[in-house]
Amino acid sequence: MTSGSDSGIQFPSTPDGRRSTSETARAVFEAAFDAIGADASRELRAERRWRERYPHYVRQLVERSLERPENAIAIARAGLDTTRRAFQFWRDGQPLTLDGAMAAPATEGFRTVTLEGRDRSAPVTWEVPYRGQTLSGDALLRQLDVWERAGVVEPSHAEALRLVQRNPAWLDLSDRTLVLLGAASEAGPFPWLMRWRANVAAVDLQRPHVWQRLTGLAASGNGRLLAPVASTAPAGDGPEYVLARAGADLLTQAPEIAAWLKSLPGDVDIASLAYLDGERHVRVSVAMDAIVTTLSEAKPGTSLAYMATPTDVFAVPEDITLQAARRYDERALFGRAAQAALRGVSRGTLFQPAASRIIESSNGQRYGTVDCIVLQQGPNYALAKRLQQWRAMVNRAAGQHVSINVAPSTATQSVVKNPLLAAGFRGASTFDVEIFEPATTNALMAAMWVHDLRNPAALSNPAVPLRHPLELIMNGANHGGMWRLPYLMRTVLPLAALRGFTRRSMY
User: Fold this and answer.
1) Contact at 8 Å (CB) between 368 and 314?
2) Is the pLDDT of residue 1 over 70?
3) Ramachandran region, residue 17 (left: φ > 0; alpha: ψ -120 to 50; beta: rest)
4) What CATH number corresponds to the domain at position 304?
5) What are the start and end residues of every segment in region (Disordered) (predicted)?
6) In this predicted structure, what is the pLDDT of residue 4?
7) Is the whole-model pTM more than 0.85?
8) Which range marks the domain in which residue 34 is found?
9) DSSP string covering 326-385, please?
């Protein structure tokens, strides 16, 4: 999703026209720390190695959030408010505030073109493609048990999927309108929604290869595709028309996209899925957040959905932190000696322990943190995903239905085009971390979304009490084993990559 250098959502600019992503990110984190009077904001202001040290501050924010449940919400609100005030929306060469732009969409917006699947009566089924097999029934349940025992997924993730498997009626989504911001996301749920009779408002760029895939899946399924087409476009319908005309740019047309979604009948379930490289990932996250907040205000029954990345910092239950520490302490003597030597040669950058301090929250619970940040993804990626976690917590605390689950590291093209990450993925099994194929991820995570929408006992339901807002994100995680890794992920990634360079595939 690209835009001109001076159009749409942009990082704030200085009087001389300069835009600094680092200064903006630091300002957002400083505001988050200041919201709870944290001393860390002073340390951050003096930081000279932001791009290397940002994981330290992300972890500190999570730790301070854990100390008191109200801290988590105060930090999240401050970070979101600072971001919304800082970012600009440029149109016709003039900067607007984000609020001002969202309140004044262009007259020429979008209308809906509907594409029906060939057979709306086709049966709704769920199965999981996995390593050349198609798992369903007992085979799928056995695989969930394997993943749970291996620590690849959390028990709450496996149990949610078992519930979906036992309740096939949940999968019929003909009663819901689901919005996908970044509909063509490779790990996203669109293929399954088109098999589950869903009504899907799809937002993605006007690019032939994007809509070729979307229209193909829609036409062959039993769902209904709602596509945005420019209101000035000549009338038409059918797959070829949608292929030629549909599309919208989140970065430059966020106000018009929000206006179009507001025009859809009834409440909607909106998933923020779009990913872009570098600083554009922050901008598209800001765009999605602006659309989400605008739509939530207009349609109070709107529910939100996110897929959290495993390569982030997370609050976790105490037992996960203790298990990681135990695994580090129980290393074989030979392994310890070899790792110590490598740590010395690398000046301490390899095999750093993952163990974190245990935090006693004011709610009487004990938590830890896991830091799975990969430096190659950069601070912009960390900020973009932090904004989504913050929005999930704030809106859920305000009474909105919010689904957010950690999705596994997935070998999508956007990730494996980085040679180091691609090699690291191929070698990840050396450290008992499982990397998933896109087809597996989208089958699992689509079912997790269904669970969170259908199960009244799911933590996504604001009527279900939470002891701490961050428990929303601890629950239902499929992290591929990263949470229980005895080492900081980034300190063994180079070694996984070395192993991966000798392998042609992940398995």
Assistant:
1) no
2) no
3) left
4) 3.40.50
5) 1-23
6) 42
7) yes
8) 1-104
9) HHHHT--HHHHHHHHHHHHHTTT-SS-B-----EE-TTS-EEEEEE---GGGHHHHHHHH
